[in-house]
Design goal:
heterodimer, A: 290 residues, 81% helix, flat, disordered N terminus, B: 265 residues, three-stranded antiparallel sheet, 9 strands
Chain lengths: 290, 265
Amino acid sequence: MTLADDSPRRLTAAEAAVDAEAARRARASRIEGVAKWLLPALVLAIAVWFWDRTVVWNNIPHYILPGPGLVLQTLVKDWAILFDAMLVTLQITLMALAVAVIGGVGLAILFNQSRFAEMSFYPYAVILQVTPVVSIAPLIFIYVDNRMAGLLLCAWIVAFFPILANTTLGLNSTDHNLRDLFRIYGATRWQRLRFLQLPSALPYFLGGLRIAGGLSLIGAIVAEYVAGTGGIGAGLAFRILEAGYRLNIPRMFAALLLIATMGVVIFAGLSFLSHMLLRKWHESAIKRET
Amino acid sequence: MSDLIHRPTLPLGQRPKVLELSRVAKVFNGNITALRDMSLSVHEGDFISLLGPSGCGKSTALRLIAGLANPTTGRILWDGGQQKGDLGVVFQEPTLMPWATVAQNVWLPFRLRGRPFGAVRDEIMEALTLVGLERFADSFPRELSGGMKMRVSIARALVTNPRLILMDEPFAALDEITRHKLNTDLLTLKEKIGCTVIFVTHSVFESVFLSDRIVVMAARPGRVIEEVLVTAPYPRGEVFRTSAEYAAHCHIASKALHAAMGEAA
C-alpha cells in the first residue's frame, strides 16, 4: 500500500524521495532477513561438498576420514544405540542444569541476604569454578560410588557458577531510588527480595542460564570421558570413546553431530525462554522500530 | 470511590499541623554539615517549595523527613508524635518497576501493606484517572513518554491518600513544555484532593507558580535563608502565570535566591 493509492493528491518531490528511501530500507531489511538463513546454509553446503570431494578425490579410507554420506548412513544405521546414548547425556545435562539453577540461585540469595555467608563461601565458589573439572573428576569418581551422581556432580560444578555470579550481580543491581521507596513504605526484607530484587535479577539470571546450559553439556561430556566405564546407561561421550577404540570413525562423527545438535537446541531453547520472559519489558528483548 | 477527594481548605490557623521540624541538622562524617538548624511547620493543605542552589540541603531535608536518614540533632514530629506519618514520594526519575504494568506500579504502596490488587482496584483506577492515565493501566512503563511516566509516579504517591507528599525535583528532567503542563495539572490535582506537598526545586518560576510558601535555602552549610509567602489564591492557571502578581513574586523569590547564593559564595 502506498500513499498514492490512498489520496488523489500528487506526491511532492520531497515526499517521493522519502517514500523511495523508506522502500529502499524495507527492501534492504527483507534481503537481510533472507540472507541471515541463506548464507549459513550456503556455507554448510559448500563445506559438506568440499569434504565429500576431498574424501572421494583422495581415496581417503573411511577409517581415517569418512565422507558426509557415510556419516549420515551411520547415523541412521546406529540410530538405536546413538539415540539411547543421547537420552542419557541429555538427562545428565538437564539434571545438572536444574541443580545448577537451584544451587546457583540459592547461593546467590544466601550471599545477598548475609554478608558473612558471602565472605565465608564466595572464595570457595570461585576456586571450584577456576579448577578445571577434568582434574577434579577422577577424584570424584573415586569417592562417589553412584556413577550417575558422579556425572551430575561434575556437570554441576561446571555449570553453577555463571548462574551464581550473574544472579548475585542482578540482586545487587536494583534501582537505588526504588530501594529507598521500598524503605519508605516499610517493606520487609522478604518483600524487597520478592518484589524488587528477584525481578531486577531476572535478566541477569537468564543470561547466566544460557551460559550454564552450554556448560552443563560440556560438564556432562567431560565427566563421561573421565568416568570411562560404560555398559548400561552409556552416554554419547562414551560412545565416541568406544567407537574410537574400534576405529569406527563414522560413528564418532555421527555422535559428534548429535552432541553439537544438542548444544544448539539447548541454547536456542534457553534463548527462547529468555525472550518470552523478558519481551514485555526488558530492553534486550525489545525490537527497535525504524 | 471518592476516598481521595476530600478536605476543604480552611484558613491556615484552623488547619492541623502535619509535620514539624525543629532545629534539625544533619552532619556527615562528623564534619560536613549538610543541613543546619532547619525549622519548618507544615500544615494540612500546604504546598511548600524548598528552593535553593545544589548543595543547599534540600534533598537532605527530604530524606530526613522520609525517614531515610536520621537527623544528627533536632526533632521531626509527625502530628505531634514521633511515629512517621503516611507518606508519598516522587523522585526526580519516575522510578517505576519496568517489569510491572502501570496499574501494578501504582498498586505498590498497597501491596507492601499486604492489600491484594482486587481489594484496591478502585483506588488505583481513581488515582490513574486523576493523572489522566486511566487508559494506560495495563501498559508497561517503557511504552510511555517521560511525562506520562512521571504521572504514574505521582499516581503512586497519592494512591494511599497520604498525610504528606514529598517531591524531589520531579519535573527537572522533563522538557519545558511537558513541565508547564505537569505544573498546571499538579495544581488542579491538589485543588481536587487537597493534599499536602513539600516540593524541592531549583526553579524560581516553578516554585512561585505552585506553592503558597517558598523556603529559600543556601549552601555550604545548607540552611534556610528566607521564607517567601505567595499570597495569590488558588486555583491558579495560565492567567496567574502571566499576571503582574506572578512576576512580582518571581522577583522577590529571585532576589532571595540571589542573596542565598551570594552568601554561599
